[in-house]
Description:
alpha/beta; binds copper (II) ion; 8 strands; about 160 residues; 5-stranded mixed sheet; 3-stranded mixed sheet
Amino acid sequence: MKIHTLAASLLAATLLLSACGKKEESASAASANATSASAVATLEFTANDSMKFNVTRVEVRAGQQVKVILTNIGSMPKAAMGHNWVLLQKGSDGKAFADAAVGAAATDYIPAALQAQVIAHTKMLGPKQTDEITFTAPSEPGEYPFVCSFPAHYVAGMHGVLVVK
Ligand SMILES: [Cu+2]
């Protein structure tokens, strides 16, 4: 939504400037590209006691800076109903990752053996907690799975896809 608004205002600016002459038009186009490439995509997720994310499909641009804000809006104790947001490499098996995570309580349910599949992850959050992470989106377009790796949450439906365009 924010990105569309930004794109619209950049387009308006470009159109206004293009009325002033060819030279300014190309300068404006170059700066519009630079601005849009550096804009941060902010993705806000909530997780609840029903083991669901509010959003299960999001899109970012290749190489874009991405800010993910996860808030656990539930009220059950962390030991019974913790939530995290873990982004995996393209082609990773989210279910297999979640299965391996069951034995990884000591590392916040991030299994050491599969660490290489993890692009970015939040902390495991208890009720009313929030975590915010920033990372660079992969340069390769495609579908990257994200999961909550708390035991049994994947099979309850707590996963989705980050699409890199
Ligand atoms: Cu969860």
